[in-house]
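FIELD: query
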Amino acid sequence: MNPTNPTNPINSINSTNPTNPNNSINSTNPTNPINSMNSINPSNPSNPTNPINRMNPINPINSMNSTNSTNPTNPMNPMNSTTPKYRILHLAYTFIEDDYRVMRYLNSLREQGHEVELICLRRKDFPEKEWQNGVNIYRIQKRVVNESGKINYLLRMLKFFLKATIITSYLQFKKRYNIIHIHNVPDFLVFCAWLPKLLGTKIILDIHDIMPELYASKFRSNQNSIMFKILLLVERASIKFADHVIVGNDIWKERLISRAVSPYKCTAIINYPDITIFRPQINVSQQDGKFIILYPGSLNAHQGLDVAIRAFNLIKGRIPGAIFYIYGDGPALPSLKAMVKELNLEKQVIFKDPLPLTEIADIMQGANVGVIPKLAEGFGDEAFSTKSMEFMACGIPIIMSKTRIDSYYFRDKEVRFFPSGDHLALADAICEVYSRPDEARKRVEAALSLVSRENWQSRKHLYLNIIDNLLSKRL
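FIELD: result
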């Protein structure tokens, strides 16, 4: 990341490391120089050497997977102590149990005293309607993440769109929402709120992924295709319909400004980590001599997991106890499992189902190194990885491919870059983290310094200001 780039919101911050140089990380285990983190105690507010410890260590989310039996009508419920300022509905084609970005929005609004509801997808064994941690959740459609064709992909979204339109319109008459916050994909989901908008409700469109480029990457299309051009038109219409647009990173903000939106109507909010959940762990067990390599996230072609598996095949005999855990699901899962079988790595490359927020944080804290092997082409080159700063917040060294987006936000002092798509270079990088613990430790300290400034707790005001400004008609 170029420190002279004035447009980078992270670069412009003083890069001086606030951590105490005498704050050494326990390195008694040569195979795991980072995990013990014994001298950094995030739960001890009196420890001045920890850049995170001044934050509230209490988890405000209380695990969105656990059913909260709190009665919303109970006068002892603090959420009932004052009349909610606003009624706000979030709508997302997502599983809330996995979508930490949406989860953080919901909890930040709830903490402000707003009445918050959510319409989303339903995973097996979860209830259709649930009151959870102060949020009414409506899970209106099941989904198996296995779309391989364009028609199947579109039909599932259209089905959700129709259901969401009916339910949103019905709820609008009951609730009279002040704001409806709609998350893509798809962009056209914003039109579920056509009736509330007619009745005066303010609409936010949150573009997690820019749809034309995502389509081109997922279905190996190009920017000259008819569908890409149609999606550009849908994007422009959706943005015009919304009162404000949030986009997932600064590169995409510049892209949208160039083709669809006024800079005054658009805000970039990256997927900042929640440092009350993702933080260095004390006295992590040493995993019986294992060297744990970890990838948690979606399994799509642009994530480059095939590169990571090939790299692991090269280092399995060079690092004693090396094991590679992959947590997630997605369209690439069958082909990745086939590759692992072909390379005879079934006992060393382990696939796991996605986990709730707090559980995956525990898993990340126990890793020796995190890998983010995205492909530096098309969509993957510009999509910000949720896990990058969460690994940083956990005090885990990161190896990531040198994509445009990661070069924009991070520097060599914080992460170990390798050329995208180069499994030989990735294998060397993993061995380097294993064999050079001092260098890995320095990167961890620099990354912790960065995350102490750039986290959800310090940046959520960007979102809350949008809410307040929309309703005061200042945007």
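FIELD: remark
The longest strand covers residues 115-122.
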